[in-house]
Amino acid sequence: MNVLIEENAAHPGLPALLTAYHLATEAEKGAAVTGPAGLPAARRAEAEDPVTVFAADTVLLATVPETGRAAGCLVLKAGAVPEVKRVWVEPEARGRGLAGALMGEALRRAAAAGAASVRLTVWEWRQGPLALYRKLGFEPAASWDDRPGLLCLEKPLAPGDRIEHLTPEAVRAHAPGGLAALLVEAVEDGASVGFLAPPDPAEAAAWWARAAVTRDVWAAFGPDGAVSGAVTLLRTDTANGRHRGEIARLLVHRAARGRALGRRLLAAAEAHAAATGLTLLVLDTQTDSPAERLYRGAGWIPAGTIPEYAADPEGTLRATTLYYKLLAA
């Protein structure tokens, strides 16, 4: 099934999820409490103000599209060895892959940040979560928490993709090689990104050389140093549109797919846009393309669909859906 994963410590559904997690944990330990007021102060603070408590950490929410409700959560604690905490899925949503999706995203983010491993603790009686962690490759580790019944597990990580905001000089340097190859591959795979088939590598390189002057460009580099993805941000240069930017050419190499790289590239561009004063972003993508799920999951809002907007690489006119996202001021 489809599961939407988002990072949002301010999500309105998070306090209830954290409260449910702590109430269940207290009950399993034999110290059942009747409500949030009976939780230990530190646990109660998490549910009351997760934005403050987890300010340095990554808070992930899992949403089932058909309900639109956040039904699971996970906290990835920052540190030299990131630690997975507060993994919780509502009982009625279990068995649908939410915990696995949350764990997968947490592991991808930790690897992308350069972590050599990820650790977690789990109560020995939680056989379901324990089976999931073992399936994901977590192994027993030297204890860092000696509470009775608490197991300490750790998983080594392979190096992740590195995302870099390229200077114009760097864009031009990569244009005839990795960036052009990335664009050519996208067109060959059927992406509607401004080119018709068969794509000309020289034209693709020339497009990137022009982008070096007109756009912000981010590139992802795999462990071998090869370009594995890219995205661009085009700013509006009119006096009445300087608050607005456009996301375009979000591309991920086929060999790098499944690592949440598209979401990370998009997040990098969004963060830079917000940090540099933009308050609105727009984009368009071919209607019913796989990219739509990515944008919707990242909080983008569809504004409408235009029929026969652009030709696909084979020359067939296709509809395009327009999206926008308001950025925090």
Please describe what this structure looks like.
With 329 residues, the chain is an alpha+beta fold. It has two domains: 4-156, Gcn5-related N-acetyltransferase (GNAT) (Aminopeptidase), CATH 3.40.630.30; 162-326, Gcn5-related N-acetyltransferase (GNAT) (Aminopeptidase, 3-Layer(aba) Sandwich), CATH 3.40.630. Helices cover 33% and strands 30% of the residues. It has nine helices and 14 strands. It has helices spanning 14-28, 41-48, 50-53, 98-112, 127-135, 168-188, 201-214, 261-275, 291-297, and strands at 4-7, 58-64, 69-77, 83-89, 117-123, 139-140, 150-156, 162-166, 216-221, 227-235, 244-252, 280-286, 301-311, 317-326. Strands 1-2-3-4-5-7-6 form a seven-stranded mixed sheet, with helices on both faces. Strands 8-9-10-11-12-14-13 form a seven-stranded mixed sheet, sandwiched between helices. Helix 1 packs antiparallel against helix 2 (41-48) and helix 6 (168-188) crosses helix 7. The protein is elongated, with a radius of gyration of 22 Å. It starts with a strand and ends with a strand. The model has no long low-confidence stretch (mean pLDDT 92).
